[in-house]
Amino acid sequence: MVMTTFKVNLLLVVLLFEGVGTGIIFKQQQRSVVNGVQFNHPFMQTMLMFIGEALCYLIYRLQKKYQAADFEHELKIAKEKGLNLNPSKWIFCIPTLCDFTASTIQFFAMSQMPLSIYYMIRGGNIVITAVFSVIFLKKQLFRQHVLGLFLAVSGFITIGITSILVSQDGLDPNQLLLGIILLVISFFFSSGQSVLEEKLFKTIYLHPNQLVGYEGSVGIIITWIALNIFSYIPCPQSMADDCPNGMMEDVPQFFKTVFTFEGPYQPTLFFMIILGIIAIAILNGLAFYATKYASALSRSMISQVSPFVVWMFTIAIGWDKFRVGQFCGYIIVVFGCLIYYEVIVIPFFGFNRNLKANFHNLAHHVASTAEVKPAAEVDQEIALNQVVPSIQNQNSEQPMNTAAAS
């Protein structure tokens, strides 16, 4: 596939709005009321997410059929690296279990807060992921990483405090605080998933959509088991008003609500359910191409812009209000993340030490390499090496495993 600059930019714009749209779709589901019953079904929303991910396996089969040359080339590179090309599909049970736990908790959190705050604070998993990477992957944090994390945490705290102190009309501050706490808890599971997958991908190779398809299929099984357990567990008292019939989940009520075509929220809710599944599948497909053809800088900017786009949209449709403190917190978070990812480089006090080391290593590598690879082969190898960042971006972008844009 020949990708011009215009096509790449168009892809990034589509990815941005697709990621934003996915969050809005799932939030609209939660705002729906049918026959006086509020739609509160986080476990079933997780099931919808996994169904969408499972559909990515069909996308993988189509890509394998119509882009056979690319597939063969990537497999050749993976084989040269000594990667396992046929790993057991069940090794992803633990990462998928982390995904299930994180996504379900995040859906609970989403129901407790405005969508814009949810999107802004959810970026906080960068902190837990960094800590886990140091502990389990033995990665090193340099000064700019520490500064970036400090600014990001400061921004998240500013957003949280502003949201609680200057709450919206009809929004219970205690409910908002509960949502923030749940979101922070989910970071440990989503970050754990990212670290586990990165560790796995040091020894194996799977096409990104093949992986997402496998995880979606395993996730459906895990969620089905969880539904048979949590449907009989009463909700905690602090969340009882937001649970279906006072239980953690009520599957019969879910289907009754979705297929009862009465009231102002139907048939919108029914179409939102279908769109949610399709949006997840499309989002993962777009994320693969963005990882393959777009620069890391472009993807980083998309992930930072998406919360602001969500906020402006929700203000426009009356779901949210503009708060100065929230805006200031968001700006601090953006600068923190851009410094952490070295998009913004501070050229003094040793904050650019890691960047200098990388340039030195690159120069040494170029000088010691006798064979110059064709550009196409280099691009393919870069795409292969970016499989794990693709997955990590997807895990951090969704309410769910959806927001590759993040």
UniProtKB/TrEMBL annotation:
GO MF annotation list: pyrimidine nucleotide-sugar transmembrane transporter activity
Signal sequence, start to end: 1-23
Q: Where are the transmembrane segments?
A: 39-60, 90-110, 116-137, 146-167, 173-190, 211-233, 269-289, 301-319, 331-351
Q: Does the keyword Transmembrane apply?
A: yes
Q: Specify where it is mainly localized.
A: membrane
Per UniProt, which keywords does this protein have? Membrane, Signal, Transmembrane, Transmembrane helix
Compartment(s) where it occurs, according to its Swiss-Prot or TrEMBL record: Membrane
* Bilayer topology annotation: Multi-pass membrane protein
Instruction: Tell me the InterPro entries matching this sequence.
Output: EmrE-like (IPR037185), Nuc_sug_transpt (IPR007271)
Report the GO terms under cellular component.
Golgi membrane
At the top level, the lineage of the source is Eukaryota
Protein name from the UniProt record: Nucleotide-sugar transporter
